[in-house]
Design goal:
It is a single chain. This protein has 480 residues and is an alpha/beta fold. α1 runs parallel beside α6 and α5 packs across α15. The two termini are 33 Å apart. The structure holds flavin-adenine dinucleotide. Flavin-adenine dinucleotide binds next to α1, α2, β18 and α15.
Length: 480
Protein backbone atom coordinates (compact mmCIF):
# COMPACT_ATOMS: atom_id res chain seq x y z
CA UNK A 1 0.00 0.00 0.00
CA UNK A 2 1.22 3.47 -0.81
CA UNK A 3 0.45 5.37 2.41
CA UNK A 4 0.85 8.75 0.68
CA UNK A 5 -1.92 7.93 -1.78
CA UNK A 6 -4.05 5.99 0.74
CA UNK A 7 -5.74 2.68 0.04
CA UNK A 8 -7.20 1.97 -3.40
CA UNK A 9 -10.69 3.42 -3.70
CA UNK A 10 -12.27 0.35 -5.24
CA UNK A 11 -11.26 -1.63 -2.14
CA UNK A 12 -11.52 0.92 0.65
CA UNK A 13 -13.76 3.96 1.01
CA UNK A 14 -11.51 6.22 3.06
CA UNK A 15 -13.26 9.09 4.85
CA UNK A 16 -11.85 11.86 7.01
CA UNK A 17 -14.93 12.04 9.19
CA UNK A 18 -17.33 9.05 9.34
CA UNK A 19 -20.05 11.31 10.77
CA UNK A 20 -20.32 13.08 7.42
CA UNK A 21 -21.43 9.87 5.66
CA UNK A 22 -25.08 9.04 5.32
CA UNK A 23 -25.17 5.59 6.94
CA UNK A 24 -28.11 3.27 6.19
CA UNK A 25 -27.63 1.04 9.21
CA UNK A 26 -25.54 1.12 12.40
CA UNK A 27 -24.52 -2.01 14.27
CA UNK A 28 -21.99 -3.19 16.80
CA UNK A 29 -20.51 -6.02 14.76
CA UNK A 30 -20.68 -6.39 11.00
CA UNK A 31 -19.85 -9.88 9.74
CA UNK A 32 -19.03 -10.41 6.07
CA UNK A 33 -19.61 -13.97 4.82
CA UNK A 34 -22.25 -16.49 5.83
CA UNK A 35 -20.19 -19.67 5.96
CA UNK A 36 -19.09 -21.52 9.09
CA UNK A 37 -16.70 -18.83 10.24
CA UNK A 38 -19.15 -15.94 9.82
CA UNK A 39 -22.07 -17.75 11.42
CA UNK A 40 -20.02 -18.84 14.41
CA UNK A 41 -18.57 -15.32 14.78
CA UNK A 42 -22.08 -13.84 14.67
CA UNK A 43 -23.34 -16.28 17.31
CA UNK A 44 -20.38 -15.71 19.62
CA UNK A 45 -20.73 -11.92 19.40
CA UNK A 46 -24.53 -11.98 19.80
CA UNK A 47 -24.24 -14.24 22.85
CA UNK A 48 -22.23 -11.43 24.46
CA UNK A 49 -24.96 -8.90 23.72
CA UNK A 50 -23.65 -7.31 20.51
CA UNK A 51 -26.04 -6.22 17.74
CA UNK A 52 -24.83 -8.19 14.71
CA UNK A 53 -25.48 -7.76 10.98
CA UNK A 54 -24.16 -10.60 8.79
CA UNK A 55 -24.17 -10.26 5.02
CA UNK A 56 -23.88 -13.12 2.57
CA UNK A 57 -23.08 -12.55 -1.08
CA UNK A 58 -25.16 -15.47 -2.36
CA UNK A 59 -28.86 -16.24 -2.06
CA UNK A 60 -28.10 -18.92 0.53
CA UNK A 61 -25.61 -19.16 3.37
CA UNK A 62 -23.08 -21.93 3.71
CA UNK A 63 -20.17 -21.44 1.34
CA UNK A 64 -17.59 -24.20 1.47
CA UNK A 65 -18.82 -25.11 4.93
CA UNK A 66 -22.00 -26.48 3.36
CA UNK A 67 -19.97 -28.54 0.89
CA UNK A 68 -17.71 -29.90 3.61
CA UNK A 69 -17.97 -33.13 5.54
CA UNK A 70 -18.31 -31.10 8.75
CA UNK A 71 -15.17 -32.75 10.14
CA UNK A 72 -13.82 -30.57 12.96
CA UNK A 73 -10.65 -31.51 14.87
CA UNK A 74 -10.54 -30.83 18.61
CA UNK A 75 -8.29 -32.10 21.38
CA UNK A 76 -9.30 -32.85 24.97
CA UNK A 77 -13.06 -32.94 24.45
CA UNK A 78 -15.40 -34.78 26.77
CA UNK A 79 -16.38 -36.98 23.80
CA UNK A 80 -12.78 -38.14 23.55
CA UNK A 81 -12.64 -38.76 27.30
CA UNK A 82 -15.84 -40.83 27.14
CA UNK A 83 -14.25 -42.89 24.36
CA UNK A 84 -11.07 -43.36 26.42
CA UNK A 85 -8.93 -41.29 24.06
CA UNK A 86 -5.99 -39.58 25.65
CA UNK A 87 -5.32 -36.37 23.73
CA UNK A 88 -4.07 -32.87 24.39
CA UNK A 89 -3.85 -29.52 22.57
CA UNK A 90 -0.07 -29.84 22.68
CA UNK A 91 -0.22 -33.14 20.80
CA UNK A 92 -2.73 -31.74 18.32
CA UNK A 93 -0.54 -28.68 17.66
CA UNK A 94 2.49 -30.93 17.22
CA UNK A 95 0.60 -33.09 14.68
CA UNK A 96 -0.41 -29.99 12.70
CA UNK A 97 3.09 -28.52 12.83
CA UNK A 98 4.70 -31.81 11.81
CA UNK A 99 2.44 -31.98 8.75
CA UNK A 100 3.18 -28.40 7.69
CA UNK A 101 6.93 -28.70 8.22
CA UNK A 102 6.77 -26.43 11.28
CA UNK A 103 5.86 -23.54 8.98
CA UNK A 104 2.71 -22.25 10.68
CA UNK A 105 3.01 -19.82 13.59
CA UNK A 106 3.63 -22.24 16.52
CA UNK A 107 2.00 -20.04 19.18
CA UNK A 108 -1.13 -19.44 17.12
CA UNK A 109 -1.30 -23.14 16.19
CA UNK A 110 -1.17 -24.09 19.88
CA UNK A 111 -3.68 -21.36 20.77
CA UNK A 112 -6.17 -22.68 18.22
CA UNK A 113 -5.61 -26.27 19.38
CA UNK A 114 -6.23 -25.13 22.97
CA UNK A 115 -9.48 -23.41 21.94
CA UNK A 116 -10.68 -26.37 19.86
CA UNK A 117 -12.30 -28.35 22.71
CA UNK A 118 -14.02 -25.21 24.00
CA UNK A 119 -15.40 -24.67 20.48
CA UNK A 120 -16.83 -28.19 20.22
CA UNK A 121 -18.37 -28.07 23.71
CA UNK A 122 -19.90 -24.65 22.97
CA UNK A 123 -21.27 -25.85 19.64
CA UNK A 124 -22.95 -28.81 21.32
CA UNK A 125 -24.08 -27.14 24.55
CA UNK A 126 -24.91 -23.57 23.50
CA UNK A 127 -25.59 -23.80 19.80
CA UNK A 128 -27.33 -27.22 19.86
CA UNK A 129 -25.18 -28.75 17.14
CA UNK A 130 -25.37 -32.54 16.89
CA UNK A 131 -21.72 -33.53 16.99
CA UNK A 132 -20.12 -36.85 17.82
CA UNK A 133 -16.55 -38.13 17.88
CA UNK A 134 -15.65 -39.95 14.66
CA UNK A 135 -13.93 -43.20 15.57
CA UNK A 136 -14.45 -45.20 12.34
CA UNK A 137 -11.03 -44.21 11.06
CA UNK A 138 -7.93 -42.18 11.88
CA UNK A 139 -7.47 -39.30 9.44
CA UNK A 140 -3.90 -39.00 8.08
CA UNK A 141 -1.89 -36.48 10.05
CA UNK A 142 -3.82 -36.97 13.30
CA UNK A 143 -2.25 -39.28 15.86
CA UNK A 144 -5.49 -39.50 17.87
CA UNK A 145 -9.19 -39.83 17.10
CA UNK A 146 -10.06 -36.13 17.42
CA UNK A 147 -12.38 -35.44 14.48
CA UNK A 148 -15.90 -34.41 15.53
CA UNK A 149 -18.74 -34.32 13.03
CA UNK A 150 -22.46 -34.82 12.63
CA UNK A 151 -24.09 -38.18 11.88
CA UNK A 152 -24.45 -37.50 8.13
CA UNK A 153 -20.88 -36.14 7.89
CA UNK A 154 -22.29 -33.25 5.88
CA UNK A 155 -21.61 -29.55 6.30
CA UNK A 156 -24.97 -28.44 4.98
CA UNK A 157 -26.62 -29.80 8.14
CA UNK A 158 -24.07 -28.00 10.31
CA UNK A 159 -24.85 -24.75 8.47
CA UNK A 160 -28.59 -25.29 8.85
CA UNK A 161 -28.18 -25.79 12.58
CA UNK A 162 -26.00 -22.66 12.84
CA UNK A 163 -28.68 -20.70 10.96
CA UNK A 164 -31.39 -22.04 13.27
CA UNK A 165 -29.31 -20.93 16.25
CA UNK A 166 -28.86 -17.48 14.66
CA UNK A 167 -32.63 -17.31 14.22
CA UNK A 168 -33.04 -17.74 17.99
CA UNK A 169 -31.03 -14.54 18.61
CA UNK A 170 -33.02 -11.31 18.22
CA UNK A 171 -29.76 -9.39 17.87
CA UNK A 172 -28.57 -11.17 14.69
CA UNK A 173 -29.77 -9.93 11.30
CA UNK A 174 -28.78 -11.92 8.20
CA UNK A 175 -28.87 -10.37 4.72
CA UNK A 176 -28.70 -12.55 1.60
CA UNK A 177 -27.81 -11.53 -1.95
CA UNK A 178 -25.81 -8.85 -0.21
CA UNK A 179 -22.16 -8.80 -1.29
CA UNK A 180 -19.93 -6.43 0.65
CA UNK A 181 -18.11 -4.33 -1.94
CA UNK A 182 -15.51 -2.45 0.09
CA UNK A 183 -14.63 -1.50 3.64
CA UNK A 184 -14.97 2.01 5.04
CA UNK A 185 -11.93 3.28 6.95
CA UNK A 186 -10.84 6.50 8.56
CA UNK A 187 -7.78 8.26 9.91
CA UNK A 188 -4.10 7.77 9.31
CA UNK A 189 -4.24 4.34 10.94
CA UNK A 190 -7.05 3.20 8.60
CA UNK A 191 -9.42 2.32 11.43
CA UNK A 192 -12.30 0.34 9.97
CA UNK A 193 -15.70 1.91 10.63
CA UNK A 194 -18.01 -0.05 8.36
CA UNK A 195 -18.59 -1.42 4.90
CA UNK A 196 -20.42 -0.75 1.69
CA UNK A 197 -22.82 -3.51 0.66
CA UNK A 198 -24.76 -4.00 -2.54
CA UNK A 199 -28.11 -5.41 -1.47
CA UNK A 200 -30.13 -6.96 -4.29
CA UNK A 201 -33.25 -4.91 -4.96
CA UNK A 202 -32.09 -2.10 -2.69
CA UNK A 203 -28.72 -1.10 -4.10
CA UNK A 204 -25.76 0.41 -2.29
CA UNK A 205 -26.05 0.36 1.47
CA UNK A 206 -23.62 1.83 3.95
CA UNK A 207 -23.34 -0.13 7.18
CA UNK A 208 -21.60 1.59 10.07
CA UNK A 209 -20.03 -0.83 12.53
CA UNK A 210 -17.87 -0.64 15.62
CA UNK A 211 -16.20 -3.91 14.64
CA UNK A 212 -15.97 -5.73 11.29
CA UNK A 213 -15.28 -9.46 10.95
CA UNK A 214 -14.02 -10.79 7.63
CA UNK A 215 -15.31 -14.33 7.09
CA UNK A 216 -15.39 -14.48 3.29
CA UNK A 217 -13.07 -17.48 2.91
CA UNK A 218 -10.11 -17.30 0.51
CA UNK A 219 -9.50 -16.83 -3.21
CA UNK A 220 -9.93 -20.28 -4.77
CA UNK A 221 -12.64 -18.92 -7.11
CA UNK A 222 -10.52 -15.97 -8.22
CA UNK A 223 -8.52 -16.94 -11.34
CA UNK A 224 -6.31 -13.87 -11.24
CA UNK A 225 -5.27 -14.41 -7.61
CA UNK A 226 -4.75 -18.13 -8.26
CA UNK A 227 -2.46 -17.38 -11.20
CA UNK A 228 -0.50 -15.01 -8.98
CA UNK A 229 -0.19 -17.12 -5.84
CA UNK A 230 -0.97 -20.77 -6.78
CA UNK A 231 -0.29 -21.07 -10.51
CA UNK A 232 -0.11 -24.89 -10.40
CA UNK A 233 -3.83 -25.07 -9.54
CA UNK A 234 -5.11 -22.16 -11.63
CA UNK A 235 -6.43 -24.50 -14.32
CA UNK A 236 -7.42 -27.38 -12.00
CA UNK A 237 -10.97 -28.50 -11.34
CA UNK A 238 -12.33 -26.26 -8.52
CA UNK A 239 -14.63 -28.16 -6.21
CA UNK A 240 -15.37 -25.37 -3.73
CA UNK A 241 -17.91 -22.57 -3.52
CA UNK A 242 -18.03 -19.93 -6.26
CA UNK A 243 -18.42 -17.10 -3.74
CA UNK A 244 -14.82 -17.39 -2.53
CA UNK A 245 -13.30 -14.70 -4.70
CA UNK A 246 -10.73 -13.29 -2.30
CA UNK A 247 -11.91 -9.72 -1.79
CA UNK A 248 -11.53 -9.93 1.98
CA UNK A 249 -7.82 -10.59 1.56
CA UNK A 250 -7.50 -7.71 -0.92
CA UNK A 251 -9.28 -5.30 1.47
CA UNK A 252 -6.98 -6.33 4.30
CA UNK A 253 -3.94 -5.92 2.11
CA UNK A 254 -5.11 -2.45 1.06
CA UNK A 255 -5.25 -1.52 4.75
CA UNK A 256 -1.67 -2.62 5.24
CA UNK A 257 -2.33 -6.11 6.63
CA UNK A 258 0.38 -8.68 6.26
CA UNK A 259 -0.39 -11.57 3.91
CA UNK A 260 0.99 -14.96 4.90
CA UNK A 261 1.37 -18.38 3.28
CA UNK A 262 -0.43 -17.29 0.10
CA UNK A 263 0.81 -20.35 -1.80
CA UNK A 264 -0.79 -22.85 0.60
CA UNK A 265 -4.01 -24.65 -0.26
CA UNK A 266 -6.16 -27.70 0.29
CA UNK A 267 -6.76 -29.98 -2.63
CA UNK A 268 -8.30 -33.45 -2.80
CA UNK A 269 -7.25 -36.51 -4.75
CA UNK A 270 -10.57 -38.31 -4.82
CA UNK A 271 -13.33 -36.42 -6.59
CA UNK A 272 -15.41 -38.80 -8.72
CA UNK A 273 -14.94 -37.87 -12.35
CA UNK A 274 -16.79 -36.84 -14.47
CA UNK A 275 -19.60 -37.16 -11.90
CA UNK A 276 -18.33 -34.30 -9.71
CA UNK A 277 -19.15 -35.92 -6.37
CA UNK A 278 -16.78 -36.35 -3.44
CA UNK A 279 -15.55 -39.88 -2.83
CA UNK A 280 -14.60 -39.50 0.82
CA UNK A 281 -10.97 -40.12 1.69
CA UNK A 282 -12.18 -42.48 4.38
CA UNK A 283 -12.32 -45.06 1.56
CA UNK A 284 -8.53 -44.86 1.24
CA UNK A 285 -7.99 -44.55 4.98
CA UNK A 286 -9.87 -47.80 5.54
CA UNK A 287 -7.81 -49.69 2.97
CA UNK A 288 -8.72 -48.57 -0.57
CA UNK A 289 -6.06 -47.85 -3.17
CA UNK A 290 -5.71 -46.08 -6.51
CA UNK A 291 -4.25 -47.08 -9.88
CA UNK A 292 -3.53 -45.07 -13.01
CA UNK A 293 -4.62 -45.93 -16.55
CA UNK A 294 -1.66 -48.29 -16.76
CA UNK A 295 -3.16 -50.34 -13.89
CA UNK A 296 -0.31 -49.32 -11.57
CA UNK A 297 -0.33 -47.68 -8.17
CA UNK A 298 1.69 -44.50 -8.28
CA UNK A 299 2.20 -43.29 -4.70
CA UNK A 300 1.59 -44.18 -1.06
CA UNK A 301 -2.04 -43.07 -0.90
CA UNK A 302 -2.06 -42.86 2.87
CA UNK A 303 0.01 -39.66 3.13
CA UNK A 304 -2.98 -37.34 2.81
CA UNK A 305 -5.78 -36.37 0.47
CA UNK A 306 -4.57 -32.83 -0.14
CA UNK A 307 -1.15 -33.58 -1.62
CA UNK A 308 -2.61 -36.61 -3.38
CA UNK A 309 -4.50 -34.30 -5.78
CA UNK A 310 -1.31 -33.37 -7.63
CA UNK A 311 -0.27 -37.04 -7.77
CA UNK A 312 -3.55 -37.88 -9.53
CA UNK A 313 -3.39 -34.87 -11.83
CA UNK A 314 0.11 -35.96 -12.90
CA UNK A 315 -1.20 -39.33 -14.16
CA UNK A 316 -2.33 -39.90 -17.77
CA UNK A 317 -5.59 -38.02 -18.30
CA UNK A 318 -5.35 -36.55 -14.79
CA UNK A 319 -7.42 -39.43 -13.44
CA UNK A 320 -7.09 -42.59 -11.34
CA UNK A 321 -9.35 -45.51 -10.45
CA UNK A 322 -10.01 -45.97 -6.75
CA UNK A 323 -10.61 -49.56 -5.64
CA UNK A 324 -12.20 -50.74 -2.40
CA UNK A 325 -14.43 -53.50 -1.05
CA UNK A 326 -17.71 -54.27 0.70
CA UNK A 327 -16.31 -53.69 4.21
CA UNK A 328 -15.29 -50.15 3.29
CA UNK A 329 -18.46 -49.55 1.29
CA UNK A 330 -20.58 -50.41 4.31
CA UNK A 331 -18.75 -47.98 6.62
CA UNK A 332 -19.05 -44.99 4.29
CA UNK A 333 -22.61 -45.75 3.25
CA UNK A 334 -23.81 -43.41 6.04
CA UNK A 335 -21.97 -40.49 4.47
CA UNK A 336 -24.19 -38.25 2.37
CA UNK A 337 -21.32 -37.54 -0.03
CA UNK A 338 -20.92 -41.27 -0.65
CA UNK A 339 -24.65 -41.63 -1.25
CA UNK A 340 -24.37 -38.86 -3.84
CA UNK A 341 -21.54 -40.81 -5.49
CA UNK A 342 -23.82 -43.84 -5.70
CA UNK A 343 -26.75 -41.78 -7.02
CA UNK A 344 -24.55 -40.15 -9.67
CA UNK A 345 -23.48 -43.58 -10.95
CA UNK A 346 -19.82 -43.06 -10.01
CA UNK A 347 -19.53 -46.26 -7.93
CA UNK A 348 -19.48 -49.59 -9.76
CA UNK A 349 -19.47 -53.09 -8.28
CA UNK A 350 -17.44 -56.10 -9.50
CA UNK A 351 -17.12 -59.72 -8.46
CA UNK A 352 -13.47 -59.86 -9.53
CA UNK A 353 -10.52 -57.65 -10.45
CA UNK A 354 -10.55 -58.78 -14.10
CA UNK A 355 -14.10 -57.45 -14.54
CA UNK A 356 -13.10 -54.19 -12.89
CA UNK A 357 -10.12 -53.86 -15.26
CA UNK A 358 -12.32 -54.40 -18.30
CA UNK A 359 -14.95 -51.85 -17.18
CA UNK A 360 -12.35 -49.10 -16.65
CA UNK A 361 -10.22 -50.05 -19.70
CA UNK A 362 -7.22 -50.93 -17.53
CA UNK A 363 -4.65 -53.56 -18.64
CA UNK A 364 -5.98 -56.67 -16.80
CA UNK A 365 -2.63 -58.44 -16.27
CA UNK A 366 -1.05 -55.32 -14.82
CA UNK A 367 -4.02 -54.64 -12.54
CA UNK A 368 -4.05 -58.22 -11.24
CA UNK A 369 -0.33 -57.95 -10.52
CA UNK A 370 -0.83 -54.61 -8.74
CA UNK A 371 -3.75 -55.95 -6.76
CA UNK A 372 -1.88 -59.10 -5.65
CA UNK A 373 1.10 -57.01 -4.57
CA UNK A 374 -1.18 -54.65 -2.61
CA UNK A 375 -2.92 -57.60 -0.95
CA UNK A 376 0.40 -59.13 0.12
CA UNK A 377 1.39 -55.83 1.71
CA UNK A 378 -2.05 -55.46 3.33
CA UNK A 379 -1.71 -58.97 4.82
CA UNK A 380 1.73 -58.04 6.11
CA UNK A 381 3.43 -60.71 3.97
CA UNK A 382 5.75 -58.25 2.21
CA UNK A 383 6.51 -54.53 2.49
CA UNK A 384 4.57 -52.20 0.24
CA UNK A 385 6.93 -51.04 -2.54
CA UNK A 386 5.45 -47.52 -2.20
CA UNK A 387 5.98 -47.44 1.55
CA UNK A 388 2.35 -47.66 2.69
CA UNK A 389 2.02 -49.14 6.17
CA UNK A 390 -1.68 -48.55 6.98
CA UNK A 391 -4.16 -50.83 5.21
CA UNK A 392 -7.13 -51.71 7.39
CA UNK A 393 -6.81 -55.30 6.13
CA UNK A 394 -6.74 -56.95 2.69
CA UNK A 395 -9.65 -56.32 0.31
CA UNK A 396 -12.24 -59.07 -0.23
CA UNK A 397 -14.62 -59.45 -3.20
CA UNK A 398 -17.00 -57.98 -4.19
CA UNK A 399 -14.95 -54.95 -5.18
CA UNK A 400 -16.11 -51.42 -5.83
CA UNK A 401 -14.41 -48.78 -7.95
CA UNK A 402 -14.78 -45.22 -9.21
CA UNK A 403 -12.78 -43.02 -11.55
CA UNK A 404 -11.48 -39.98 -9.67
CA UNK A 405 -9.51 -36.82 -10.31
CA UNK A 406 -7.67 -34.19 -8.24
CA UNK A 407 -9.34 -30.88 -7.43
CA UNK A 408 -8.72 -27.62 -5.62
CA UNK A 409 -10.93 -27.22 -2.52
CA UNK A 410 -9.83 -23.99 -0.87
CA UNK A 411 -6.88 -21.69 -0.27
CA UNK A 412 -5.05 -21.58 3.06
CA UNK A 413 -3.10 -18.32 2.80
CA UNK A 414 -4.53 -15.05 4.00
CA UNK A 415 -4.41 -12.18 6.46
CA UNK A 416 -2.10 -12.45 9.42
CA UNK A 417 -4.10 -12.55 12.68
CA UNK A 418 -3.18 -12.58 16.36
CA UNK A 419 -4.64 -14.63 19.24
CA UNK A 420 -7.74 -12.36 19.30
CA UNK A 421 -8.25 -12.87 15.52
CA UNK A 422 -7.38 -9.20 14.95
CA UNK A 423 -5.93 -8.50 11.52
CA UNK A 424 -2.25 -7.58 11.82
CA UNK A 425 -0.27 -5.14 9.71
CA UNK A 426 3.27 -5.52 8.46
CA UNK A 427 4.48 -3.40 11.40
CA UNK A 428 2.89 -5.81 13.90
CA UNK A 429 0.02 -3.50 14.96
CA UNK A 430 -3.62 -4.54 14.50
CA UNK A 431 -5.78 -2.81 11.90
CA UNK A 432 -8.20 -1.09 14.30
CA UNK A 433 -11.63 -2.79 14.53
CA UNK A 434 -10.85 -5.50 11.98
CA UNK A 435 -10.97 -9.28 12.63
CA UNK A 436 -10.69 -12.29 10.34
CA UNK A 437 -11.41 -15.99 10.50
CA UNK A 438 -11.64 -19.01 8.20
CA UNK A 439 -10.15 -18.80 4.74
CA UNK A 440 -9.71 -15.01 4.91
CA UNK A 441 -7.14 -15.47 7.68
CA UNK A 442 -3.91 -17.38 7.25
CA UNK A 443 -4.35 -21.10 7.91
CA UNK A 444 -2.17 -23.76 9.51
CA UNK A 445 -0.89 -25.52 6.42
CA UNK A 446 2.57 -24.17 5.77
CA UNK A 447 3.77 -21.55 3.34
CA UNK A 448 2.96 -23.16 0.00
CA UNK A 449 1.55 -26.19 -1.76
CA UNK A 450 -1.05 -28.78 -0.71
CA UNK A 451 1.09 -31.07 1.46
CA UNK A 452 1.10 -29.02 4.66
CA UNK A 453 -2.66 -29.36 5.07
CA UNK A 454 -3.67 -31.62 7.96
CA UNK A 455 -7.09 -33.20 7.58
CA UNK A 456 -9.77 -30.72 8.69
CA UNK A 457 -7.47 -27.70 9.08
CA UNK A 458 -10.10 -25.79 7.08
CA UNK A 459 -12.92 -25.90 9.61
CA UNK A 460 -10.42 -25.61 12.44
CA UNK A 461 -9.43 -22.13 11.21
CA UNK A 462 -12.99 -21.27 10.23
CA UNK A 463 -14.80 -22.22 13.42
CA UNK A 464 -12.18 -21.65 16.10
CA UNK A 465 -11.01 -18.30 14.69
CA UNK A 466 -14.61 -17.31 13.90
CA UNK A 467 -15.59 -17.89 17.50
CA UNK A 468 -12.54 -16.04 18.79
CA UNK A 469 -13.26 -13.13 16.42
CA UNK A 470 -16.88 -12.85 17.57
CA UNK A 471 -15.92 -13.07 21.25
CA UNK A 472 -13.02 -10.61 20.94
CA UNK A 473 -15.07 -8.06 19.01
CA UNK A 474 -17.92 -8.19 21.55
CA UNK A 475 -15.58 -8.20 24.56
CA UNK A 476 -13.69 -5.19 23.25
CA UNK A 477 -16.98 -3.32 22.84
CA UNK A 478 -17.81 -4.06 26.46
CA UNK A 479 -14.32 -3.00 27.46
CA UNK A 480 -13.65 -6.47 28.84
C1 LIG B 1 -16.00 -30.45 -0.69
C2 LIG B 1 -15.27 -29.89 0.50
C3 LIG B 1 -15.20 -30.65 1.65
C4 LIG B 1 -14.53 -30.13 2.78
N1 LIG B 1 -14.54 -30.85 3.94
C5 LIG B 1 -13.95 -30.34 5.04
C6 LIG B 1 -14.04 -31.00 6.30
O1 LIG B 1 -14.76 -32.00 6.46
N2 LIG B 1 -13.35 -30.47 7.35
C7 LIG B 1 -12.63 -29.31 7.23
O2 LIG B 1 -12.02 -28.88 8.20
N3 LIG B 1 -12.59 -28.63 6.07
C8 LIG B 1 -13.25 -29.10 4.98
N4 LIG B 1 -13.23 -28.38 3.82
C9 LIG B 1 -12.70 -27.01 3.88
C10 LIG B 1 -13.74 -26.15 4.64
O3 LIG B 1 -15.01 -26.36 4.07
C11 LIG B 1 -13.40 -24.67 4.57
O4 LIG B 1 -12.06 -24.47 4.95
C12 LIG B 1 -14.31 -23.89 5.53
O5 LIG B 1 -15.66 -24.24 5.27
C13 LIG B 1 -14.12 -22.40 5.36
O6 LIG B 1 -15.12 -21.72 6.08
P1 LIG B 1 -15.33 -20.15 5.85
O7 LIG B 1 -16.43 -19.74 6.73
O8 LIG B 1 -14.01 -19.48 5.95
O9 LIG B 1 -15.76 -20.03 4.33
P2 LIG B 1 -17.10 -20.45 3.60
O10 LIG B 1 -17.81 -21.52 4.32
O11 LIG B 1 -16.75 -20.69 2.17
O12 LIG B 1 -18.00 -19.15 3.72
C14 LIG B 1 -17.62 -17.94 3.10
C15 LIG B 1 -18.89 -17.24 2.66
O13 LIG B 1 -18.58 -15.88 2.36
C16 LIG B 1 -19.38 -15.48 1.27
N5 LIG B 1 -18.78 -14.30 0.66
C17 LIG B 1 -17.68 -14.23 -0.14
N6 LIG B 1 -17.46 -12.96 -0.51
C18 LIG B 1 -18.42 -12.20 0.07
C19 LIG B 1 -18.73 -10.83 0.06
N7 LIG B 1 -18.01 -9.94 -0.65
N8 LIG B 1 -19.81 -10.38 0.76
C20 LIG B 1 -20.58 -11.25 1.46
N9 LIG B 1 -20.33 -12.58 1.49
C21 LIG B 1 -19.26 -13.05 0.81
C22 LIG B 1 -19.38 -16.71 0.38
O14 LIG B 1 -20.45 -16.65 -0.55
C23 LIG B 1 -19.51 -17.83 1.41
O15 LIG B 1 -20.85 -18.17 1.65
C24 LIG B 1 -13.89 -28.87 2.70
C25 LIG B 1 -13.96 -28.11 1.53
C26 LIG B 1 -14.66 -28.61 0.44
C27 LIG B 1 -14.74 -27.77 -0.81
Amino acid sequence: MNQAQGPKEDLILHVDDPDTLSWDVEVDVFVIGGGGSGLVAALAAAERGAEVFLVEKEKAAGGNTSLSQAMVPAAGTRFQKEAGIDDSPELMAEDILKKNGYESNPELTLHVARESARLVHWLVDNVEINFELVTDFLYPGHSRHRIHSNRSRKGVHLVNELLQAAGRHKNILVGYNAPAKRLVATGSDNAVVGAEVEIQGIGKNLARAKKVILALNGFAANGEMLRKYIPEMSEAYYFGHEGNTGEGILWGEALGAQLECMGAYQAHGSVAYPHGTLLTWVVVTLGGYQVNRGGKRFVNEYRGYSEHALDVLNQEGGVAVEIFDQRIHDVVLNYEDFQQCIESGAIRKFSDIEGLAEAFHLPPDELVRTHDEFQRAARGESPDPLGRTEFGGPLEPPFYAAQVTGALFHTQGGLKVNHQAQVIRGDGRPVPNLYAGGGTAVGFSGTSGPAGYSSANGLLGALVLGKIAGESAANELKGA
